[in-house]
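We emphasize that the prediction below concerns an isolated chain of 471 residues; any contacts that depend on oligomerization or on bound cofactors are therefore not represented. The input was used exactly as deposited, without trimming of termini.
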Amino acid sequence: MGFIEPGRRLKRRKHNKTTKFRHAAIADLGSMIASSNPPSSSPKCLQDLPLEVLYRIFILAKPQNNLPLVNRYFNHILKFDPYRPKFDSFSISNWPNISLVISMIKHWYIVDLNTRLDFSLILDKYNYYNRLLQRFVDQNTPNHGQLLESLSILKSSIERFKQNTYAINEQMLSNNFKSGTLVDLLNNPKFVRHYMGYHGDYVISSGSMILLEIRYRHRYIALKFKELAYYVNKLTTTDNDEQSETTLAESDLEKVKETFNKENRKLPRYNDHNSMLDSLSPDKIEFYSFKDNKLHYNFYLQTSPQDFPLVIYKHGVYSMERLKLITSLFTFNYQFFNIDELLSNTFMKFTPKNLPKLHYNQVSLSTFIDKILELNDMEKYPLTSISIIQVFMLYNSYETLDCTQFDSNIDNQSISYDISFALLLLLTLFYSKQDQNDRDIWKCVLQLKNNTLAKALMKFSDRPDYDLLLH
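Result of the prediction step, given as a token string:
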């Protein structure tokens, strides 16, 4: 009994020892489990995420987002140099992050021009009218050639719709990743197939023109089937005389009633089918027209010149990279509808105040002017006296300055010589047309009181109006 402590219950004491041993065993077991299954590390901040996830976030955050500015790490993984020094074939393996730019373009700027066309339904309707044609041929029905020709035109249009499926919204040109090399890539069918997964030809156009193209494609298909119904109705009536052929107009086709059945289902109709088209359509734009009494789609975006976007006009031409971009856009059928605005904004970049901001030793103003005048359709979009006046004022701003304080251009010419050469280019082009109104030009020269400009102008124009001399 000596091992029993007086005043302490034996049963309670045993219980405490048992509990103590149990807790120790559980603790040992927990440490064993923890050591065999270490906790997985979870991301603590955004940059801990996998690269694939960060790239996806960057794309979904919309163009021009500030994710590359968060820190050095993000700048490193998302940095893109649009002016790659060398470009060979269509390989982009040595162009870091070009795949990100491609993904950005595909997600935000690529538009399907056939989004309203159900080609399966269109094919069913085409086959329906083609079977009707075969029936008329088997029955020797006279004057079925009109229906045959209309079907042939529709088939050709459908094939071109499939060939010209996609467009790029020109808002892409507002991004910092734009460059002439990138635009050349988008004009390379091999590159487009291999890296973008698309087939066919592209156009670059404004969002409003792309929207019109989408709507007019559907409208054309609907009218074309009405045209087919019109010729079918003529062949099934007693008045099937080729001499009684009337000149068709769009309003005539709108009145035609198609016969719908299981083989000839109705095309979907959209709420903006009429009113929105009329309000959005610019003047003198014909997406389709009648030729030989048949409705033809004109493929306006693919064949007609379009004006350069405002973002190009706004900054003019101030670097070789900028000239390369503009030159590349000419291959997408762009033209300067207002050449004076572009030249005026370009001259602003070469004023005495702004010239030090340029890398003038890498550029040449006269080279820029010469290249733009060469590429632009100057017959259709002519030069006016505005550009002549602007370049005269630019020359006059350097007249009293010591031009040696400025760098020479890429051809080792002074800024005054560079402007003089550009001035002669513009005067030669302006006076190549007969009976040019140069009153405003003479007025500018007389106000500037610049003898050098007066002598240059007199090589192209004899004298100013007498009333200008009086003032």
